[in-house]
Design a protein that fits this description.
By secondary structure, the chain is an alpha/beta fold. The chain has 8 helices and 7 strands. The strands form 2 sheets. The protein has a 4-stranded parallel beta sheet, with helices on both faces. A 3-stranded parallel beta sheet has the order 5-6-7.
């Protein structure tokens, strides 16, 4: 937990590519790092573990723009260095793509919220519904000594699909961000498991769903 503030999250969503290079695999099987992280994260929640105090207060204030995985992790490590950290998040809930891009069946929200609360308990202040339009003005208004930009990558990629404008084609990122919206028919354009997750979500209450991926 000293290096990874969200082990329960990491252990659930990481594809553990490091295991393919694990030299233990030459003997029997790679070390299941993601399973270990998940176990430790769940054990931390069960036992009520908290982060140990870090360095003494530095007297410095740091603004973190964005409350996603990058912003939360940066805020945690900055707090351990003794800085007073404040996250400004535009959404009504912290988590970023962990909250809006990963389905709850893969990352239960109670596990995500528990680890965010633990970061807050370490001294990080999270301000929600606060979109930063001017970083320099925000730094001056809050008298911050530095700013860390973690605005995320929540814009979906688009592929060239013939006559895509003739039908309603939604990118997976946008659809997963607002899964509550219902459409008569949806096409989810994505790569990797995001298309599968989108199709699974949109099939609930939909008449037809097509998942389009590139080779």
């Amino acid at each position: 937990m000293r290096d990874n503030p969200m082990p329960a999250v990491h252990g659930r969503v990481c594809y553990h590519p490091c295991e393919s290079a694990c030299n233990r695999g030459a003997l029997d099987s790679p070390v299941g790092v993601h399973a270990v992280e998940r176990f430790l994260g769940d054990l931390a929640a069960q036992e009520g573990w908290t982060f140990k105090a870090g360095a003494a207060p530095s007297g410095r204030r740091v603004l973190v723009v964005g409350g996603g995985p990058g912003g939360l992790s940066a805020a945690y490590h900055l707090a351990r260095m003794g800085h007073a950290v404040e996250i400004h998040e535009a959404a009504s809930i912290a988590g970023g793509m962990m909250q809006f891009g990963i389905p709850a069946y893969r990352l239960p929200r109670e596990d995500l919220e528990r680890e965010i609360r633990r970061i807050e308990a370490a001294g990080v202040k999270i301000v929600l519904n606060h979109k930063v339009e001017d970083v320099l003005a925000e730094v001056a208004a809050g008298r911050f000594d530095a700013a860390f930009l973690a605005i995320g990558a929540d814009v979906g990629k688009h592929v060239e699909i013939p006559a895509r404008d003739a039908v309603r084609v939604l990118d997976a990122v946008s659809l997963l961000h607002d899964v509550g919206a219902s459409e008569p028919r949806s096409s989810a354009a994505a790569w990797s498991s995001m298309a599968a997750a989108t199709r699974r979500w949109t099939r609930r209450g939909q008449r037809g769903v097509s998942a389009l991926t590139r080779p």
